[in-house]
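Colleagues,

Please find the record for the two-part complex below.
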Amino acid sequence: GENVEQHPSTLSVQEGDSAVIKCTYSDSASNYFPWYKQELGKGPQLIIDIRSNVGEKKDQRIAVTLNKTAKHFSLHITETQPEDSAVYFCAASRSRGTSYGKLTFGQGTILTVHP
Amino acid sequence: EAGVVQSPRYKIIEKKQPVAFWCNPISGHNTLYWYRQNLGQGPELLIRYENEEAVDDSQLPKDRFSAERLKGVDSTLKIQPAELGDSAVYLCASTPRTSGTDTQYFGPGTRLTVL
């Protein structure tokens, strides 16, 4: 089955700095890669996603890059703000065939943005 | 649009007792997922429903866990009897009916503590 590794496990930055979180996946058939933000006591909330036919996607201060050959994808947050502090999870899944829709999550990154 | 609703939000029980969690997905979402999230880890899929049918329950510990989605809307996840290791957050997620949409929307979860 799919295995997703996420690094770093904790990340501390100053307000205004950039933050980068990296993930690798094992299943070459995975073609959907979402990123979720989870705040204390809440469920994961989708912040951005990317499909395997795209190399990069941006949404305001957030961007995701995908390297299918190397099987890794990254989340980039620019101009970080204290409200960006949360746990971030990457995930991977297939859009077709067996295991369709089964999200395999990374272990999570605790991001702390200091004012 | 209302999000995924789960109840109860918190549950504390003694081991060997039964427990049930309820989920109401976003209106119109035909695909429903149950995940378990252990402390400090990413969610892990337990079961996926397409309407009333459980199409992927390979990760559900069937000796003590059961789930149902009788009318293709609400779903209930049950544990009987609960063990200490079942302490976790149980998350419900749903996906819209639109073809090609993979986005999973998560509820706030039920935090289970087994004493």
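Chain B has a mean pLDDT of 93.

Comments are welcome before we finalize the supplementary table.
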